[in-house]
Amino acid sequence: MPTAPPPSRDVALETRFFFERFKKEIITVLLVAVVGILAFTGYRFYSDRRAAAASALLASAKTASEYQEVISRYPNSAAAAAAYLLLAEAQRREKKFSDANTTLQTFIDKFPKNEFVSTARMAMAANLESMGKTDEALATYQQIASTYPNSFNAPLALLSQVYVLKGKDKNDEARHICETILTQYRTSFWAGEAMQELRLLKPSSTPAPVATPGAVVPPFLAPPAAAPAPQGAPAPQRAPSPNKP
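Above: the chain's sequence. Below: its structure in token form.
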């Protein structure tokens, strides 16, 4: 018994039928894709032009007010991040240390992932030193060294602690930090500076105990007693007085 031939399939016809059936959905998807491509291209073009304009404005800035203009016009750009650092340096040159630290803290808050965050903290510590706040500066240096141990500022933060501790006459602590630099950062430039400081630092001398009246002196602190003269030895003779004949 002959079998019936399979029904013929017209691919073009089926494609047309499929398109006619889902025409609205296909056109919608295509329109969304085109709009997305155009929006992304436009955004990239706008971002590139904006970044270029921000960089050009930063390059021409020389004063604190001009750095502030870059920050105001392009607040989230890379140029604005650099402008914060340059503004803080300009404020430091004018001895406005408190204003400089406010600017640096704003930079850290707005750009916490920036590679110069540890540098900004180092500048803040230096400003604290300039204001005479050595305890706060020392705490900041300690925080930098512990928070960013792999950064290029870590050994410098440790060495900065040495200078502060020397000013406080804490030579033993300063020596310990120098030894830490030589152990953990022996290949860095600051290892040589730490070695030089270590040679200059003298360990703190422990004062000798002072005996109080009536106090019992431990045997190991008492002065050695004179050895007794051997039996049969002649008694020591006193030297004659020069006034007697």
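The longest helix spans residues 23-60.
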